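User: Some background: our group keeps a shared notebook of sequences we're curious about, and every so often someone picks one and asks for a predicted structure to add to the entry. Today it's my turn. The entry only has the sequence so far, pasted here. Could you supply the structure so I can complete it?
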Amino acid sequence: MGNTFSRRVMSEEKSKHPLFKAQIEKATRFQLRKPTPNKTNWDTFYKLSSNENMMGASPKAVAAMKAALEGVYEYDFYDDYQFQDVLADFYNQEIKSGQFITANSGVEVLEIICRGLVSVGSECIISSPTFSPYKNIIELEGGVVIDIPLKLPDYSYDVEGVLNAVTDKTAIVFVTNPNNPTGTYATKDEFERLLDGLPKDVIVVYDEVYFHFVDADDFPYAKDYVKAGNNVISLHTFSKIYGLAGMRVGYGFTTPEIGEYLNKIFRPFRIGTLATIAAYEALKDTEHVEASQKMVWEGKKWLYKKFDENNIQYWPSQGNFVMFKVGMNSLELTSAMLDQGVMVRPGDNFGAPGCIRLTIGTNEANERFWEVLQGIIK
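Assistant: Of course. Here's the predicted structure to add to the notebook entry:
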């Protein structure tokens, strides 16, 4: 009986089902533990944990979705040719239709990229702390994650470390710029040194979803490198500046050769009607974009001043968020703030233990955050 049980356990360890893929069985399931309040002694709730646009969605996008509601019983936008044409016009035809990869969120663009470019045993380089779904998406395709962490204490990009980690198995280098959750960035010089040092068959996935909030003069924009023919795939989303996080729409762009290849990974009606229409209108609403940028830039300056005056460690950010540290357990601080109606994100899931990531909000939200933080740490 003991031998039978032993054989059965060994068999279960090998595979739970003959059709299960080994790479999916071994992959780390992506989990984001979302804390819930223990108390309800607050009048207004401020969600400053997910880097959403606290101004909300573009009013033009909302109006367009409302106007289209009665037509949702029909299938629409079978493919993304029209969407790609809209994006090409938005980029003044500097990036052409066929170079875009559109999808149901920026995360799905990442999934398409990895499905097309990552094979079992492929090595993919990331730099923690960073966007945590990378690891899961890579592993689901059987890829091997090679982590070359950002350099402390300023969380700068380790160009030499990444280049030294490249092998003949390297498929993709992920560069998150500005980086999430640190808000730090790889400069133009650093990014070009990376490109110059990589083998020609290695592709750089350049996640610049926060580029609208950048004000650094030496920031490298993906469009310039794609136009120059580099093996770069840029990742963009409508979830941040455009305020359409709940609609789940994103896109990437790359060279004509890579674009033609990745667009073969096709699924009909991939993006919903309302999401597509909202994206079209959001691209046109420059006033909303500019107002959102102003809110973030002014909010960051105000918070930096508060942090400086109270000797709180923080990292200057090029995103719509800022990471800080107060010398208190981050999970305890997060929980204590949530009990008072302010939700912020601990850095532990990203690989930045002890740190907190705060989304820049409206003046009212920022002031409430500061009031609650001061009450807890004092």
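Suggested note for the entry: The chain has a mean pLDDT of 91. Residues 59-284 form a domain with the Aspartate Aminotransferase; domain 2 fold (CATH 3.40.640.10).
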